[in-house]
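To make this tangible, we now present a fold written out as tokens:
***
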Amino acid sequence: MLFSRESVIPLFLKQIKEKKPITVTEPEMKRFLLPLKEAIHLVGFALKNGRQGDIFVNNAPSASIGSLAQALKNIFSSDSEIKTMGMRHGEKLHETLASKDELLRSEDMGDYLRLSMDDRDLNYNKYLSEGDKKVIQTEDYTSQNTTRLTIQEMEKMLLAQPEIIAELKQ
């Protein structure tokens, strides 16, 4: 999410306001972006369309952390430098929202993917003589292989967020 507790945006905004360097772990790190309004819509959609065991995933764009920092610099006309700190233990370059196994059981519902529960039986004997060629052709759904926002698209998205609008008015 854009302004969750785990989001870097509040930190970046604080650094910009204090005219300090914007610290990023790795500029090429990619993350999914889900504004609060879209998260609420996702919950409503899931309540209306969900079945027992379903998981809904937003077909969300991603952005690199470097692009996000640059977009915020542009919006706030900041001359803060973007300083790379390096990755910390346990961090990943990209996020995974759905595995290829989940995608094989998914239904594309436009803005969302419905991931159905795995209801296969545990009779592995039938998998000794049969397989699924789609498994090889399918990739996990990650922030690396989804639509990636440009800096300009990121600016447009950010400028529509109430938190950014409020910061600009200060």
